[in-house]
Structure formats: structure tokens, C-alpha cells
Amino acid sequence: MxxxxxxxxxxxxxxxxxxxxxxxxGEELQVALQPQAFDAATxxxxxxxxxxxxxxxxxxxxxxxxxxxxxxITATFxxxxxxxxxxxx
Length: 89
What we know:
The protein is α+β, with helices and mostly antiparallel strands. It has helices at 40-62, 66-81, and strands spanning 20-25, 28-33.
């Protein structure tokens, strides 16, 4: 299994809480989360921050401008969020 690098921050803080894990199994996304960790607005902010982290990483690793990655993520998010649950990609 390929794992991302460990976090550089000290994880011994007693207030540290893991709220989500995501795996790609074959071509299927598997998610484990603590839905009660945040309200809907905070989950939305978390998703936006994740998009920014991904865009920054793409820029650092692949040289793709972060604005381009964010635009693609945003467009795809809009398309995907508007699909019915029976119509996943």
C-alpha cells in the first residue's frame, strides 16, 4: 500500500482528532469519517482547504499552476455534487 508522508507537526497534542481517512481501492473511493466532528459549513471549509492543499502540491510536484488545478477541482466538484446518488462517476 502506498502511504502519504507523515505529518511534520507533533501529533501528541491531546486535542488532535482524526476526522477522515480516504482510500482508493481499485477504482472505488472508500471513506471513513467522523460526521459529527463539524457542522456542514465547517465541512465545506475543510473541502475548500483540501482543494488548496492539492493545488499547492500539484504545483510543487508537477509544476501545474495552482490556479489551474483549483479551477479544474471546482468545475468537477460542481458537476459531481449535482449528480443524483444513483449517477456517480
